[in-house]
Amino acid sequence: MQPSAQSPAVLDVAIVGAGPVGAALAARLAGTGLSYAVIEARESAAVDARTLALSHASRLFLERAAAWPAAVTPIESIHVSQKGGPGRTLITAREQGLPALGYALSYVDLQAALAARLQAAEIDVRYGARVAAIELGEHAVVRYARGGAMETITARLLVLADGGANAHLLPGIAFSEKDYGQTAVTAKVATDRPHGGRAYERFTNEGPAALLPLGSGYSLVWTAGPEEATRLKALDEASFLAQLQEHFGDRAGRFISAGTRAAFPLKLRTINETIARRTVLVGNAARTLHPIAGQGLNIGLRDAEALAGLLLSAGREEIGGAAMLEEYRDMRSRDSARGASFTDLLVSAFARRGPMVKWGRGLALTALDVLPPARRLLADRMIFGAPSR
Predict the structure, then answer these.
(1) What percent of the chain has pLDDT over 90?
(2) 23-37, 43-57, 362-376: which is most confident
């Protein structure tokens, strides 16, 4: 039974944030008998121009939640190389025994699929609800402003899936931040040859440049310093394409068009603790990663999957209790920490300059290319995450 006007005074779960991770958790819990509601500060589902890369494991989870969008582009292979140096490797879905390594899709399409699922399941989603206070005791009590009035929601478990917006309301929660001094320039681009489902990760001294197959073209993420990113964003289309060609090379073909460009700064942000009394922090509320290797949202969806599994196996009185929260932390700490360390290592390793460093990176890429077991293990970790134990 989903919450309604006759909802119990104390819900099983209150989810703050209706972005992809919070909405996916809510969708997964539909029809399970748990009572829960979602509160979201925005007035409606988010609209965002970003392109997402979801792993095959994320697809399986969203299918179980009945929220897999139709408009996706399969990523059948990933070509990894470095500019101005030796070495390359190719990771393929066939070698992994999967239909695709991952899928590229728009943020808008994913949010639309999730919103449609929540509506079809008649899940209680309260938009325009801005959290004012959180009280943690026998239950979690959230006070929020909506429509000019203050309202309250009480639950056995509070899930913060709000990107960290309300973490400051929890005692003992603190973030650590590392500014990479980089900015990602994004755009939809097209080349003169079919992509064949291949993605590209190209490492340069200025930062990685990635192409994700999307529809008949690509979604580009070009990492540069802040001043260079501002310059690139301001170029006319012809100049931008010429510089992209020189920067990326011709492995994807000749670049023939580029859409509207956007830019956002790149930082690593991690939290000191993913649980508090009666509370779990998931997705970007727990960590924000560099987009290299596309791990951020996929780790967040694995958070939601693990939490959903615990909720579905717990007795009602166990929900939100210390034992359940500690089990969740133990399940997710290894994957979360390794995901953050892996992306940070990639950014740092490929930012170093010098011929010896470049040749060392080349040897590492070559080793991956000639050692299929190592390549398969790397791909498995990127797709399914680190094991919990």
Answers:
(1) 74
(2) 23-37
CA dist 88 and 366 (Å) reads 6
**Average pLDDT, whole number, for the chain?**
91
Residue 102: Cβ within 10 Å count: 27
Q: What span, in angstroms and rounded, lies between the C-alpha atoms of 103 and 117?
A: 20
Instruction: Identify the pLDDT of residue 389.
Output: 59
- Mean pLDDT on 217-239: 96
Percentage, residues of the chain above pLDDT 70: 94
Amino acid in position 161 = A
The tens digit of pLDDT for each residue in 164-196 reads 999 999 999 999 999 999 999 999 999 999 999
CATH of domain 11-47+107-176+269-348: 3.50.50.60
Q: Which of 75, 33, 34, 31 is nearest to 54 (CA)?
A: 75
The DSSP output letter for 235 is S
The backbone torsions φ and ψ at residue 11, rounded to the nearest 5 degrees and listed phi first, read -80, 160
**Residue 342 corresponds to which amino acid?**
F
**Tokens 């929020």 identify what position?**
144
In angstroms, the CA 44 to CA 27 distance is 17
Distance CA 192, CA 182 (A): 29
Q: Residues 305-333: what's their mean pLDDT?
A: 96
Tokens in use for 232?
Answer: 């690139």
Dist. CA 12–CA 278, nearest whole Å = 11
Alpha helices by DSSP H, listed for the chain, are 20-28, 56-64, 93-96, 107-120, 226-234, 237-248, 296-313, 322-349, 355-370, 372-384
Q: Please, what's the b/e burial string for 364-385 (b: 16 or more CB within 10 A of its CB; e: otherwise)?
A: ebeebbeeeeebeebbebbbbb
pLDDT of residue 351: 64
Q: Compute the distance between CA of residue 248 and CA of residue 232 in angstroms, rounded to an integer.
A: 14
Cβ atoms of 337 and 61 within 8 Å: the answer is no
Domain residue limits, the chain: 11-47+107-176+269-348
